[in-house]
Design brief:
Layout (H helix, E strand, L loop, with lengths): L2 H6 L4 H5 L3 H9 L8 E7 L5 E5 L2 E6 L11 E3 L6 E8 L2 E8 L4 E10 L2 E9 L8 E7 L7 E6 L3 E7 L3 E7 L2 E6 L11 E5 L4 E9 L2 E8 L8
């Protein structure tokens, strides 16, 4: 009978210290993706709805409301796939594209105009999660603007300076509510965007040109739940 009370005390500090190192890692970084997992999402930088199909992913349709332009990450089942063939349909046009893949990455497929044509630009980064801080990323997906900075308002403090087009910069920050802005090289600025940064979350702030205006769009970088 003495063993039962002892089992209940396993939540005490001594038992927690004796737990495997992997458990401590999960508490700090959250549940990690499967080794070499690849995640893919679609970002709509057009003025019309975008549909994307592929043999390796479920079909996706991305709208034009600000809150829907940054699609959710989907888990690519094949971690050994070296490329992702796509069919993109938007505004009566159909574009076929192939994107290169690497293991243990997340890929954002930005669908935008290149003159009269539709172009798919792949932006790839590594993933890492930390339950105590916020991961903040700034993505410059506005070729019309050139190198751009992300600023903290109202003081115009620079968070990420001179980020090149089709480039992402990331850093860990403390949880906080902020107002962020960016702009184009010729002086056009975005409206300040309120962003809530929460512990354990990953947030990306995208610079896009929509309706001929530089615009910041906020997206969640949450990865789909991993089921071992």
């Amino acid at each position: 009978m003495a063993a039962r009370p002892l089992a209940r005390t396993c939540l005490a500090a001594a038992c927690l210290l004796a737990a495997p190192a992997a458990r401590a890692e999960r508490s700090l970084y959250g549940q990690q993706p499967k080794r070499d997992a690849i995640f893919v999402r679609v970002v709509n930088a057009l003025d019309t709805e975008v549909s994307v199909t592929s043999d390796l992913l479920p079909p996706q349709t991305i709208g034009i409301r600000d809150e829907t332009r940054i699609g959710s990450y989907l888990n690519l089942d094949r971690t050994d796939a070296s490329s992702l063939p796509l069919v993109v349909r938007a505004g009566g046009q159909e574009v076929r594209s192939t994107v290169g893949l690497s293991p243990a990455t997340k890929v954002s497929l930005v669908v935008r105009r290149d003159g009269e044509a539709i172009r798919v630009v792949a932006m790839t980064s590594r993933y890492e999660m930390n339950q105590t801080r916020t991961s903040l990323s700034f993505v410059n997906a506005a070729p019309e603007c050139g190198p751009s900075s992300l600023r903290l308002e109202p003081a115009s403090t620079v968070v990420f300076p001179d980020v090149a087009v089709d480039t992402e910069r990331s850093r860990g920050v403390n949880p906080v509510s902020v107002q962020l802005s960016s702009g184009c090289r010729e002086g056009r600025s975005t409206t300040a965007k309120p962003v809530q940064l929460e512990a354990g979350n990953a947030t990306s702030v995208w610079l896009l040109v929509l309706r001929n205006q530089p615009t910041l769009i906020v997206g969640s970088d949450a990865l789909p739940a991993w089921k071992p």
